C-alpha cells in the first residue's frame, strides 16, 4: 500500500458516505433499466423519490422504511419539494405540467389527499418548485418564464378549509426560462437565464438584482444570517455569475460585493471518504476552473453548495473562501438538509453524503469499525487530527486502539504513518488540563462539545471503599497487636495515588463514546498485566511501610524481656498472613478477569472463522476451529477436576497428617522414594474408579458470563456436540457424552433433543444423559409438585397449561411421570395415550362411521392434546407397542397418529385405504405423508380410489345428486384425476397412463390436466435431451483425456 499523501493545513472538512442506499432502490425496484428514479427531495423525517412511471415513494429516514406510495397518471415525476414548516405536505410536479400538493395525514392515520392541483403550466416543462416559509403556498416556474403559485387547503387550518379550492395565480412572467426559485420572509427570488429578480409577494413589487445580464443557467438563493444580541439580521442574496463568480446582495437586491472563486478552485480535489473506493488525493492537480454555478443551495452552517455533473463544490461566502470540492461522477440532482446531501446519479443510483470535520469523520469511522479507512483519514488530515481540539472527539487511546486493529501484513506502511501521527498528537490545552487535574482526584468529568466540563462526584466510590478497607484493616491489626500488650499510636493509611488513578480509569471506561466489536471493552494483555503488577506492588509497599512504622514504634517502648521473641514472632506471622491473603485476593480477581478475556477472544475468533461458508460447510475445517476453541472452554468453564492443581502437594499433606513424626524423621530423599510408588498407585486406582463412576451433569453456569458471550458459547458448544455425535474422528476431541455431561448448561436443548432422536439406535446413552439433565433442570418447575401427587389427569392438565412449553421440558415431565409409577414405562405410556385420546377429543361419531370405518374428512378435527399425542407416538418403542398404539388411535379416530404409525410399521396398504376413505390427497403429499413407492402400491391406490369414488357416486345418486365419474378435483379430494397427476409427476405422463390401463381404469381428463400432462412430457423430453448431451460431453472429455 503506497504512502498516504497529506492534505494542506487549510483543509479541515470532508464529504463522507456512511450509508449504502442500493438495497433500498433494489427493494423499490428502481435499479432496473425500465423504471428509474428521476428526482428527489429530503426533509428532517422523509426522503421522497419520484420515478419515471409517475410513482412517489415516501421513505422514512429512520430505518429507511417505505411508508407511502402515491401514483400519478399525468406523466413522470420531474420535481419534488417537501414543506419546510409542515412535513405532512409535499409538492409534486409531473412532465405534463401538473402540480399537485398532497396532504399525507400519516400522523392521523388518514388517507393521503390531493389538497391542491394546478394545470397552469400544462404543456410546459416545470423547471423549479419551492415552498413559502410560513404558509401553505407553492411557487412554480417553467421553461417559458412563467411563475405562479397555488395555495393548499387543509383541515389543520380550521373547519371547512379542506373544502375550499384556492385559485391558482400568476406571480410574474420573466424574460427567459426559470432556473431556480427561492423564498424567505415574504420575498421571492427568481433566477432566469439572463437575470435575477426579487419579488415582494405581499406588496407586489419587483427588483432586478444587479444591472449586468448573463446568458446561461445560473442559480441564486437566500443565505440566512446569525441571530445576534439585537435580533436576527436580514438574509443575504447570492447570485451566480459567469467565470466562477458570485454576487453578494442585500435583502433589497442591492449588490454589495463580488466573490471570485476561479483562483480558489485551482487546488486539488479532496477525496470522497466512502466504503466504495479508497480515498485518493493528487496534490499535483492545480489548474484554475471556470465553472457555471447552475444551482446554489444553502447548506450546513453558513455554506453554499453547488455542483456540476462531475463534482460538488462547498463555498463559505462570508469570508470568500472555498471549503472543499470533491469529484463525484454522473451527478443529476442534489437535495440537502442541514449538513447532509442526497445525490441522484444519471444511472439512477442514490448516494448519501455528510459534511463533517476530519476528526468527526474519524470518530464515525471508528464507531463503524472501518479501521483502514479511519487510519487513512488520520494520516491524510494529520494537521487537523493532531490539534488539541481534536482530543474531544478522538482521544489518544482511541487512536492507539485503531493502530492495534490494523493488520501488520496488509497495512505495514499505514501503521508506520499512523505512528508518526501519534507522536505529533497534542493534548488538551493547558487550562483544560489544569482544571482537569484539580478535580480528577475525587471527581470524574465529561467535556461537552461546547467546552463545558460536566463534573460527576465520586464520593462513596470504589476508591473511597478501598481507602476505608485499608483503614479498617489497619485498625484490626492494631487491635490484634494490642492484645499482646503493644502500645501503638494511631496510624492513618493514605490511599495510594496509583490505585486511585487506576480506579478512575476503570470507572471512566464504560463512558467511552466509541464502539468496539466485543461485548465489553477488553484490556490489552500488556496493560492488564501492568495493572496487576502496579496493584500488587502498591499493596506490598503500603504493608511494608506499615510494618516498618509499627516496628519503629514498638522499639521506642520498653517491653518485658520474656515476651519479646514471642511478640515479634506473632507480629511477623500476622503481617505475613495479611500480606499473603491480600495478594491472593488481588491475584484471584485479576486472574479471573484475564481468563474471561481469553475466553471472549477465543470465542470471537471462532465465531469469525465460522462466518466463512468454506469453513462452516467443511467438517474437517469446522472440527479444527472448534478444537482450537475447546481448550479455553475446558480451562475456564470446565469441571473442577480439570482445573490446574498440585496433586503431589496434596498427597504430601495427607501423608504428613497421617504420620507427622515419621515424615519429620525421614530425609527429603527418603520421603520422595517412599511417596513415588504411593502416588502412582493412587493415580491408577483413581483412574480405574473413574471408569465406573457416573459422570455428573452440569446444568448451571459455574461463573457469571456476559449475555452476548453466553449466546456465542451456546452456539459453539451445540455445534461441537452435533459434530462429535455424527462425524467426529479426531482422537484428541472429547466424546459427545462427556461433552454433554460437562457443558449441558451451554447447549441448545431442542437441537440436542433432535440429535439424540436421530442417533438413538447407535448411541442410546446420549438420550439417557439428556433425560437426566432435563430432569435436573426442570426440578424446580411447579408441574413437578403436581406430578408427584400421582394424579395423571391433573398432571396432563398442568402440562397443557405449562408455559413456556417446549418439547425438551415436556419430554422431561413425561419421563418423570413414567418412572414415578411402579409399572413398566411402556404400559404406562399406553395409559397416557388412552387418557389423552379421551380428554378434549372429538366425539367418536364424528371420527368413525357406524361400521367402524373412517368418516369423511374427520382427520381435520382438532384434538386438545395434539402435541402430547404427537410426542407419545414418536417416542422410541418396539414393534408390538407400536401395533397397540396404532389400534388405539384407530379405535378413537386419531387419524394423523394412525397414519404415522402405519408408515412406521410398513402397513402401507392400510394407510392408503384410510386415506381414500378420508378423501384428502394432501395426506399423500405432506412431509409426513404416506406416498406410494412402488408400482404395485400405486395400482392398489388407484383401484381403491376408483372403488371409493364409485361408492360415493352411488350414494350421491341415491340422494338425488349428479354423478361426477370421480374425475373432479375439489379442495384436495381423492379423485382419479388427482391421483393420476400425482403419479405423472413421479413417473411421467406416458407411464402414468399405461399404469391406469393396466388397472382397467379410464379417466376423462380436464383441459387443465391435459395441459399439465403435455408440460410434463415436454419437461421430460428436455430433461432426457439434456442428460444425453451431458453424457456425450463427458464421454468426449474422457476420451480426450485418455488420448
UniProtKB/TrEMBL annotation:
UniProt entry tagged with the keyword Cytoplasm: yes
One GO CC term, this protein: BLOC-2 complex
Comp. bias intervals (Basic and acidic residues): 497-509
Designated name of the protein: Hermansky-Pudlak syndrome 5 protein homolog
GO annotation, biological process: developmental pigmentation
InterPro entries (UniProt xref): Beta-prop_HPS5-like (IPR056499), HPS5 (IPR035431), TPR_HPS5 (IPR056445), WD40/YVTN_repeat-like_dom_sf (IPR015943), WD40_repeat_dom_sf (IPR036322)
Biased composition (Acidic residues): 650-661
Source organism of this protein record: Gouania willdenowi (Blunt-snouted clingfish)
HPS5 TPR domain span: 816-1014
Taxonomic path: Eukaryota, Metazoa, Chordata, Craniata, Vertebrata
Keywords: Cytoplasm
Gene3D superfamilies in the record: YVTN repeat-like/Quinoprotein amine dehydrogenase
Function (record text): May regulate the synthesis and function of lysosomes and of highly specialized organelles, such as melanosomes and platelet dense granules.
Region (Disordered), start-end ranges: 459-519, 641-678
One Pfam family named in its UniProt record: Beta-prop_HPS5
Domain HPS5-like beta-propeller: 15-346
Family: Belongs to the HPS5 family.
DNA-binding among keywords: no
Self-association and partners: Component of the biogenesis of lysosome-related organelles complex-2 (or BLOC2) composed of HPS3, HPS5 and HPS6.
Subcellular location field: Cytoplasm, Cytosol
Amino acid at each position: 500500500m503506497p504512502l498516504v499523501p497529506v492534505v494542506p493545513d487549510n483543509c479541515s472538512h470532508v464529504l463522507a458516505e456512511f450509508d449504502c442506499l442500493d438495497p433500498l432502490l433494489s427493494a423499490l425496484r428502481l435499479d432496473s433499466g425500465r423504471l428509474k428514479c428521476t428526482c428527489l427531495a429530503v426533509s428532517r423525517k422523509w426522503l421522497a423519490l419520484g420515478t419515471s412511471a409517475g410513482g412517489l415513494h415516501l421513505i422514512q429516514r429512520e430505518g429507511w422504511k417505505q411508508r407511502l406510495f402515491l401514483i400519478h397518471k399525468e406523466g413522470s415525476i420531474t420535481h419534488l419539494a417537501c414543506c419546510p414548516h409542515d412535513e405532512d405536505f409535499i409538492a409534486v410536479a409531473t412532465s405534463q405540467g401538473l402540480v399537485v400538493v398532497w396532504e399525507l395525514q400519516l400522523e392521523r392515520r388518514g388517507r393521503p389527499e390531493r389538497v391542491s392541483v394546478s394545470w397552469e403550466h400544462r404543456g410546459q416543462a416545470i423547471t423549479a418548485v419551492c415552498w413559502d416559509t410560513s404558509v401553505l403556498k407553492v411557487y412554480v416556474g417553467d421553461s417559458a418564464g412563467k411563475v405562479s403559485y397555488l395555495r393548499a387547503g387543509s383541515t389543520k387550518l380550521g373547519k371547512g378549509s379542506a373544502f375550499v379550492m384556492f385559485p391558482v395565480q400568476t406571480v410574474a412572467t420573466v424574460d427567459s426560462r426559470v432556473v431556480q426559485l427561492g423564498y424567505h420572509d415574504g420575498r421571492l427570488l427568481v433566477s432566469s437565464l439572463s437575470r435575477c429578480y426579487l419579488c415582494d409577494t405581499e406588496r407586489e413589487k419587483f427588483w432586478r438584482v444587479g444591472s449586468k445580464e448573463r446568458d446561461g443557467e445560473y442559480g441564486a438563493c437566500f443565505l440566512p444570517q446569525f441571530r445576534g444580541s439585537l435580533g436576527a439580521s436580514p438574509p443575504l442574496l447570492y447570485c451566480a455569475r459567469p467565470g466562477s463568480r458570485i454576487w453578494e446582495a442585500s435583502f433589497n437586491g442591492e449588490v454589495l460585493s463580488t466573490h471570485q472563486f476561479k483562483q480558489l478552485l485551482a487546488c486539488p480535489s479532496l477525496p470522497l471518504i466512502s466504503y466504495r473506493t479508497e480515498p485518493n488525493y493528487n496534490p499535483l492537480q492545480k489548474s484554475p476552473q471556470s465553472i457555471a454555478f447552475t444551482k446554489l443551495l444553502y447548506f450546513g452552517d453558513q455554506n453554499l453548495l453547488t455542483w456540476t455533473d462531475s463534482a460538488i463544490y462547498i463555498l463559505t461566502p462570508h469570508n470568500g473562501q472555498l471549503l472543499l470540492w470533491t469529484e463525484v461522477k454522473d451527478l443529476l440532482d442534489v437535495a440537502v438538509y442541514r449538513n447532509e446531501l442526497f445525490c441522484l446519479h444519471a444511472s439512477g443510483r442514490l448516494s448519501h453524503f455528510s459534511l463533517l470535520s476530519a476528526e468527526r469523520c474519524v470518530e464515525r469511522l471508528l464507531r463503524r469499525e472501518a479501521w483502514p479507512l479511519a487510519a487513512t483519514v488520520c494520516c491524510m488530515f494529520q494537521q487537523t487530527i493532531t490539534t488539541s481540539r481534536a482530543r474531544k472527539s478522538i482521544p489518544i487511546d482511541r487512536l492507539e486502539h485503531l493502530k492495534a486493529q490494523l493488520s501488520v501484513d496488509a497495512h505495514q506502511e499505514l501503521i508506520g504513518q499512523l505512528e508518526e501521527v501519534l507522536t505529533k498528537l497534542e493534548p488538551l490545552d493547558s487550562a483544560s488540563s489544569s482544571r482537569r487535574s484539580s478535580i480528577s482526584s475525587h471527581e470524574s468529568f465529561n467535556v461537552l462539545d461546547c467546552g463545558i466540563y460536566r463534573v460527576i462526584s465520586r464520593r462513596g466510590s470504589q476508591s473511597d471503599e478501598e481507602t476505608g478497607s485499608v483503614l479498617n484493616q489497619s485498625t484490626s491489626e492494631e487491635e490484634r497487636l494490642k492484645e499482646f500488650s503493644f502500645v501503638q499510636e494511631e496510624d492513618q493509611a493514605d490511599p495510594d495515588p496509583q490505585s486511585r488513578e487506576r480506579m478512575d480509569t476503570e470507572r471512566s471506561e464504560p463512558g467511552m463514546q466509541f464502539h468496539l466489536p466485543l461485548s465489553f471493552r477488553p484490556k490489552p494483555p500488556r496493560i492488564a498485566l501492568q495493572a496487576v503488577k502496579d496493584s500488587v506492588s502498591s499493596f506490598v509497599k503500603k504493608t511494608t511501610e506499615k510494618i516498618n512504622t509499627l516496628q519503629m514504634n514498638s522499639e521506642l517502648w520498653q517491653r518485658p524481656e520474656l515476651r519479646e521473641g514471642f511478640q515479634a514472632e506473632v507480629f511477623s506471622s500476622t503481617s505475613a498472613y495479611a500480606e499473603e491473603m491480600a495478594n491472593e485476593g488481588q491475584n484471584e480477581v485479576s486472574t479471573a478477569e484475564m481468563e474471561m478475556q481469553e475466553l471472549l477472544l477465543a470465542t470471537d475468533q471462532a465465531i469469525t472463522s465460522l462466518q466463512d461458508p468454506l469453513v462452516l460447510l467443511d467438517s474437517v475445517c469446522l472440527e479444527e476451529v472448534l478444537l482450537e476453541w475447546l481448550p479455553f472452554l475446558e480451562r475456564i468453564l470446565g469441571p473442577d477436576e480439570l482445573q490446574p492443581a498440585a496433586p503431589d502437594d496434596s498427597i504430601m499433606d495427607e501423608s504428613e497428617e497421617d504420620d507427622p513424626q515419621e515424615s519429620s524423621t525421614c530425609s527429603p530423599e527418603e520421603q520422595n522414594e517412599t511417596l513415588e510408588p504411593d502416588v502412582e498407585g493412587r493415580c491408577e486406582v483413581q483412574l480405574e474408579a473413574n471408569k465406573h463412576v457416573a459422570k455428573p451433569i452440569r446444568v448451571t453456569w459455574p461463573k457469571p458470563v456476559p449475555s452476548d458471550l453466553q449466546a456465542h458459547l451456546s452456539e459453539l458448544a451445540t455445534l461441537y456436540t452435533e459434530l462429535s455425535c455424527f462425524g467426529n474422528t479426531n482422537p484428541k476431541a472429547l466424546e459427545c457424552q462427556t461433552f454433554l455431561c460437562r457443558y449441558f448448561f451451554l447447549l441448545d436443548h431442542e437441537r440436542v433433543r433432535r440429535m439424540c432422536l436421530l442417533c438413538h439406535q447407535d448411541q442410546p446413552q446420549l438420550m439417557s444423559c439428556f433425560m437426566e439433565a432435563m430432569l435436573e433442570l426442570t426440578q424446580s418447575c411447579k408441574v413437578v409438585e403436581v406430578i408427584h401427587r400421582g394424579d395423571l389427569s391433573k398432571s396432563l392438565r398442568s402440562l397443557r397449561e405449562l408455559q413456556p412449553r417446549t418439547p425438551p421440558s415436556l419430554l422431561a415431565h413425561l419421563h418423570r411421570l413414567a418412572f414415578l409409577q411402579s409399572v413398566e414405562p411402556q404400559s404406562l405410556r399406553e395409559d397416557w395415550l388412552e387418557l389423552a385420546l379421551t380428554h378434549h377429543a372429538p366425539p367418536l361419531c364424528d371420527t368413525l362411521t357406524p361400521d367402524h370405518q373412517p368418516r369423511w374428512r374427520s382427520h381435520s378435527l382438532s384434538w386438545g392434546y395434539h402435541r402430547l399425542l404427537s410426542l407419545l407416538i414418536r417416542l422410541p418403542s418396539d414393534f408390538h407397542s407400536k401395533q397397540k398404539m396404532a389400534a388405539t388411535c384407530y379405535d378413537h379416530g386419531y387419524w394423523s397418529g394412525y397414519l404415522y404409525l402405519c408408515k412406521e410399521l410398513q402397513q402401507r396398504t392400510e394407510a392408503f385405504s384410510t386415506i381414500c376413505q378420508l378423501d384428502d390427497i394432501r395426506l399423500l403429499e405432506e412431509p409426513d405423508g404416506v406416498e406410494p413407492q412402488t408400482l404395485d402400491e400405486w395400482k392398489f391406490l388407484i383401484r381403491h380410489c376408483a372403488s371409493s369414488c364409485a361408492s360415493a357416486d352411488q350414494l350421491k345418486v341415491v340422494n338425488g345428486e349428479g354423478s361426477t365419474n370421480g374425475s373432479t378435483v375439489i379442495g384436495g379430494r381423492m379423485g382419479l384425476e388427482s391421483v393420476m397427476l400425482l403419479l405423472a409427476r413421479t413417473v411421467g405422463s406416458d407411464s402414468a397412463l399405461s399404469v391406469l390401463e393396466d388397472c382397467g381404469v379410464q379417466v376423462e381428463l380436464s383441459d387443465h390436466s391435459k395441459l399439465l400432462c403435455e408440460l410434463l412430457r415436454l419437461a421430460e423430453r428436455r430433461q432426457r435431451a439434456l442428460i444425453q448431451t451431458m453424457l456425450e460431453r463427458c464421454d468426449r472429455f474422457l476420451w480426450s483425456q485418455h488420448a
